[in-house]
Amino acid sequence: MLFEELAELTGQRNAIDGRIVEIVAEVDRDRLWAAAGARSVASLVAWKAGVTPARAETIATLAHRLDGFPLCHQGLREGRLSLDQVGTIAERAADGSDEHYAELAASATVTQLRFALKLAPKPKPEPRPEPEVEPEPDHTPEPAPAPQPSISKTSDEHSTTWRITLPALEAAKFDAALASHQDALITDWKRDHDTEAADGSGQHGSGQPGSGQRPPMPTTADAFLALVEASWDAETSRRPHGQHTTVVAHLDLDKPVAALHLGPLLSDADRRYLTCDATCEVWFERHGRPIGAGRTTRTVNRRLRRALEHRDRCCAVPGCGATHGLHAHHIRHWEDGGPTDLNNLVLVCPYHHRAHHRGLITITGPADQLVVTDGAGRALSSASLARTPTTPPPAAAPYKGPTGERADWWWYEPFQPQPPPSKN
Fold first, then answer.
1. CA dihedral of 260, 262, 265, 268, whole degrees rounded to 10
2. What pTM, to 2 d.p., does this model score?
3. What pLDDT, on the 0 to 100 scale, is given for residue 210?
4. Which of 117-126, 284-293, 300-309, 347-356 has the lowest mean pLDDT?
5. Contact at 8 Å (CB) between 21 and 45?
6. Cα separations (Å) of 302 from 82, 171, 240?
7. Do residues 43 and 319 make contact, with C-beta atoms less than 8 angstroms apart?
8. Nearest to 151 by CA among 162, 142, 159, 140
9. What are the boundaries of the signal sequence (predicted)?
């Protein structure tokens, strides 16, 4: 009895997943996820359905390819196939393979489906048509493609090895920076050596009086560490997680407009976004003539930034969860009299920061009573849409599942993509 009930409930769950996929397909087609403040349809599913990002990606992928796999989706809606089975097919199968994998999924596990998809031949690129008239051979050698910047890391319990590949121009900048820091270190090293020789103290290097040991001459590795430390000690505004631009804006007191220095006019949304967490220099004008310069007071300093990160931990928009590249946003805009303090600041990701200044979402405070609404004025929350059902479960066949037998891949014939019809 327990197995029968399990099969019946699993079939109903599969049918419900099939309907969810259809709903997500409509949301994806009409781009309703953007209106809700989500950054993608998968993010919306993870938020509203309360599932993991990996499962949300599976649902979104199946919804995107729904028209290409009608038989597999029919099996899901009828309860005969599971979401993981059909999702695996939608993620990896080639076009035109719906019938083949719908039949295989009736008796194969998810693991067996993944292995079968690995056996399928990869599509070959279409051959290019040969030109009617062969061009004259060009003996000029083709320039070699520029190497792409890359960094690889290999570590063990004693040390770490970094391998850096840079194009010629970037490598020249890197070499110049290393040489500059190494020259500075060598200059300091020589000055300390001359001072030691002049006073005859012999107390340098190891820190032990009278040891007479000098520190070794600075190497390229020392210069690299100095370069890293110099970057680390930079101001917060030059960190990757903060706005690192200095915005020079001209604001006419007689007109509600602003313009970038030697640049175009700014809309209200663009002006508020650019100057929300940036080093901003505002020049006030009247009748087109400068009358004074504003102060750079809206910048979030390092100490306040750390307090924000400790309090918010991630993007403040419900359901987002982004933790990298966050911007410090003034809830009440600085130009409207909002102070640069903890109660008027909140961390938001760049996507939702732009969405707020474009009017797609609204963020109101103070920070301890933060309210985020979408474009229609509906409050967003981090809770999923799950609630107690009021309708009977869908009619679905009991889920029989795979046969459980060991697959003999010797007899399996992988799906062969059909060649395109000849144009002749």
1. 0
2. 0.55
3. 43
4. 284-293
5. no
6. 50, 31, 13
7. yes
8. 162
9. none
Which of 179, 178, 189, 185 is closest to 224 using CA atoms? 178
pLDDT score for 208: 42
d(CA 379, CA 363): 10
- Measured CA to CA, the distance from residue 112 to residue 37 in angstroms comes to 38
Backbone angles phi, psi at 380, to 5 degrees: -90, 140
Angle between helices 98-105 and 110-119 (to 10 degrees): 150
Say how far apart CA 329 and CA 109 lie, in whole Å: 49
Find the helix packing angle between 41-49 and 53-64, rounded to 10°: 130
Distances (CA, A) of 108 to 21, 251, 277, 412: 22, 68, 54, 12
Residue 17 has pLDDT above 90, yes or no: yes
Q: Where are the domains of the chain?
A: 2-119, 302-373
Residues near 358 by beta carbon (within 8 Å), at least 6 away in sequence: 269, 273
Give dist(CA 381, CA 362) in Å, integer.
13
Distance CA 254, CA 217 (A): 63
Task: Show the beta-strand stretches assigned E in 335-399.
Answer: 345-348, 362-364, 371-373
Which of 411, 398, 402 lies closest to 2, judged by CA? 398
Contact (CB, 8 A) for 327 and 302: no
